[in-house]
Specification:
The complex is a heterodimer of chains A (about 280) and B (about 300).
Chain A: H1 4-24, E1 27-29, E2 36-38, H2 42-49, H3 53-83, H4 89-97, H5 104-114, H6 121-128, H7 140-168, H8 172-180, H9 185-196, H10 198-213, H11 217-222, H12 234-244, H13 248-276
Antiparallel strand pairs in A: 1-2
Chain B: H1 34-59, H2 64-67, H3 82-90, H4 93-124, H5 130-140, H6 145-158, H7 165-169, H8 177-186, H9 191-199, H10 204-212, H11 217-233, H12 236-241, H13 250-254, H14 266-301
Helix pairs in contact in B: 3-14, 4-8, 4-11, 9-10, 11-14
Classes of the chains: A mainly alpha (about 280), B mainly alpha (about 300).
């Protein structure tokens, strides 16, 4: 049967591990160890009792809000700009999207050098305008800002591209009508274009949220979760606990919590949108 | 060279003047004033995207003394490929390249094949529980990679697939995204052609390859290119299942150039990043229309 292999692979490598992960989260088990001790919900208890957890959740929340929110706002502005009848806009569109196809590791290393506090191009620019460079490498807060900037640089082109497609589906006569009614360009953008972009915004909010919560390679290449765990997100902590510290059961518990959060957010978004977006 | 300056910091400066002007007011008057602001903003956005890449390319030709000179200099003293030679000597870049090429071609190719077959079955074959199977495929899109990480790693280790191509490729092979896009496209194909083919006695396999695939060129190209780019850049999974240098792919091997103890030789590291980014950038610039179409398709139909 034609669909068989694909469905089988999905079951073996997506649905089976999804269920198994719930089970693993109730074990005290080290990766590779032959023995596993059932501990019930103790891993979850440990997670919420860990003094580092609130901070890790805060880092995750800041990273997610900044990359998703910032990406959507900047992407929309870029799309509006690149939708104008300007010369070279085709070339500009291509260039803005280009970083999206690059390897996150390569992008991370390249920007790590841009951010070098002494010899990087950014510190030279900051010196030129009379301010010194922050300690991107050693200050946890600035390190978080650094990975957020790099994430946005890499991914904003994708958001811009999707918004651009949405903008081009806006019927011209609606805008002409608004303009005849004396609406300013800003006014017609807010009351005509923005609502029409509702479905696009919805699509982007879900997909960019999922991608942001799963982002790994930039953080790994630039900070490895540090300094002082200042860039350790939930995703990164799943990796560190599971594969660096070997605590597979504990790591599975974090993964399960992250999955539940994602699941709830997605369901809420779907509900919300079903009620709100109904003109398409 | 500090004149290139103002565009440095991240993305914060992009597009503040753009908002009001979306409307493309009917025929654009020649030389109208708002265009100047538009061009400036566009130039700024392009500079922010391009300058880091230029910095990378230039640094890949600089020696240690040039890299650590203050004030910083943009242009390298010479274009001798010293750093590329050093990079290739300290890690097996040739092997990384071969491994990346193998996993990309096999991974993306098989994924497409599975996606095509599944979408065909979901649209044109009267299988029982068709809707159910469709949901099985679509819901997989919502399962994040990190939750399947440890169980899949344990399974691959159990199968003795660590440090193998199949270990890298097989767990990621199932095509949910591709199947979804192909299905959306197949639904738009005229059924009459396939019915005619069926009357002529063509089986499903023949109908798929002789009639459906030739009618799906643009979708196949778009999905294929997006899959290729994804496979080429994949990092987390190969990082976990590979620890032998001779099996590493380019993104995984690249980090071997980082010397975490001493002062990093940025010139050599930048040479490595050039080697990883240039192939995919070249593919992107050559085929960007198709890739862009592939990225957008999911958004418009989703």
């Amino acid at each position: 049967m034609l669909a068989g292999p694909n469905i089988a692979l999905l079951v073996v490598f997506t649905y089976r591990p999804l269920l198994q992960s719930f089970y693993l989260s109730t074990l005290q088990w080290n990766l590779g160890s032959p023995t596993a001790i059932p501990v019930g919900l103790a891993n979850y208890g440990d997670f919420f009792a860990d003094p580092g957890t609130p901070r890790m959740l805060a880092v995750t929340a800041i990273f997610t809000l900044a990359t998703v929110g910032g990406g959507m706002v900047l992407g929309l502005l870029l799309a509006v700009l690149l939708n104008r009848k300007l010369r070279f806009r085709g070339a500009a569109r291509t260039i803005v999207v280009a970083p999206y196809v690059l390897s996150g590791v390569a992008v991370g290393l390249l920007w790590l050098f841009v951010f070098d506090p002494n010899f990087g191009v950014l510190s030279a620019l900051l010196r030129a305008v009379g301010i010194g460079s922050p300690d991107w490498y050693t200050d946890p807060q600035w390190a978080l800002v650094m990975v957020i900037i790099v994430y946005l640089w890499k991914n904003v082109g994708y958001v811009a591209l999707i918004y651009l497609a949405g903008l081009q589906a806006v019927p011209r006569d609606l805008l002409e009508a608004a303009s005849l009614d004396g609406a300013s360009p800003l006014r017609s953008f807010v009351s005509v274009v923005l609502p029409l972009l509702g479905p696009t915004t919805f699509f982007l909010s879900i997909t960019t949220l999922l991608t942001s919560l799963q982002s790994f390679d930039i953080i790994r290449a630039m900070t490895n979760g540090g300094p002082l765990e200042g860039t350790t997100t939930m995703m990164y902590s799943i990796y560190l606990e599971g594969f660096a510290a070997g605590r597979a059961g504990y790591s599975s518990a974090i993964a399960t919590i992250l999955f539940l959060v994602l699941f709830v957010i997605t369901v809420v978004q779907l509900r919300f949108v079903e009620r709100k977006v109904h003109y398409a | 060279m500090s004149g290139v300056g103002t565009s440095g910091v991240g993305t914060s400066g992009v597009g503040t003047s753009g908002v009001g002007v979306i409307v493309d007011p009917a025929p654009p008057r020649r030389g109208s004033r708002p265009a100047v602001g538009g061009y400036l903003t566009m130039a700024l956005a392009v500079a922010v995207m391009v300058l880091p890449l230029v910095w990378m390319a230039l640094a890949s030709f600089k020696g240690m003394d040039e890299l650590y000179r203050l004030p910083i200099q943009w242009l390298p003293d010479s274009l001798a490929p010293t750093n590329y030679v050093t990079a290739a000597q300290s890690v097996p870049f040739g092997m990384f390249f071969v491994n990346s090429a193998i996993t990309t071609v096999l991974g993306a190719g098989l994924k497409m094949l599975l996606g095509l077959m599944t979408a065909y079955a979901l649209v044109f074959v009267d299988i029982p529980f068709r809707r159910f199977f469709f949901y099985v495929v679509v819901c997989a899109l919502l399962v994040p990679q990190q939750i399947v990480l440890i169980p899949n790693y344990a399974l691959v280790a159990q199968l003795d697939w660590l440090n193998t191509y199949q270990g890298m490729i097989v767990p990621g092979l199932a095509s949910a995204f591709g199947t979804f896009l192909f299905r959306q496209h197949f639904l738009t194909l005229p059924r009459s052609i396939l019915e005619a083919a069926e009357l002529d006695g063509a089986g499903h396999w023949r109908r798929l390859w002789r009639f459906v695939v030739p009618l799906s060129g643009p979708t196949i190209a778009a999905v294929g290119l997006v899959s290729i780019v994804t496979e080429w850049n994949d990092y987390l999974w190969p990082l976990l299942v590979i620890d032998r240098p001779e099996m590493m792919t380019l993104p995984v091997g690249l980090t071997l150039l980082m010397n975490f103890d001493g002062i990093p030789d940025w010139g050599v590291i930048m040479a490595g990043t050039v080697l990883v980014t240039v192939p995919v950038l070249a593919v992107f610039f050559l085929l960007q229309r198709r890739i862009v179409a592939g990225l957008v398709t999911g958004a418009v139909t989703g």
